[in-house]
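Late entry, written up from scratch paper. The run itself happened at the end of the previous shift, but nothing got recorded in the book at the time, so transcribing now.
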Amino acid sequence: MKQALVIRHLMFEDLGSLAPVLQAKGYEITYLEAGSDDLSNINPLEPELVIILGGPIGAYDDQDYPFIKDELHLLEQRLKVDAPTLGICLGAQLMARALGAKVYPGNEKEIGWFPIQLTAAGAASSLRYLAQPGETVLHWHGDTFDLPQGATHLASSEKYPNQAFAWGNCGLAIQFHPEVTKNGLERWFIGHACEINHAPGVTVAELRQETEKYAQLLEVQGEKCWQGWLEQIEAALLV
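Output as recorded:
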């Protein structure tokens, strides 16, 4: 089977809707837990796919979290040869940093359900399934990044201009969270309780209400997005 290596920073921030799509495409999923599993011995080019998920730390916090250096090394090696790589939230920020771009705290937290706006390249990508009229996606971040030189800008939001970019044919970095599910977010509301309580204008009640309204559609459209991206990778690797 093809290997999908997934680096996770929090147990409850997992693959969500992406997991069944990967399994249907013939991938065996292996999670590595940042901070407890040794990331330094990973052969960067061995897994057919590498995915780095989100988390509350900064992509620039390697002094406190040395494993970030291992993640950056892994990403640098894969992105150099355009090996299939996906970064979500913190994973996207790490991809940006690995490509030489600056990652830094934003002006405000962006937590909640908000729409994205696609560039022309984004509208031609699999992200088109996430930006139909009336659709919103979940955002949960305080940091942002500059667009790496040579990357293709795909998406923005009202608060942050850089929400997604493509790298080559097989690299995708997404600041927001297309992978979340309604049931899975209940664990986020517990695990991120302190952050929610300190974020102005954000409450668990409101997040739960918006999740009830938007999550089911995102699960459906998210699966289409993932399927489209994996098909794009398969086509690129055949060339």
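The radius of gyration is 16 Å.
(Scratch paper discarded after transcription.)
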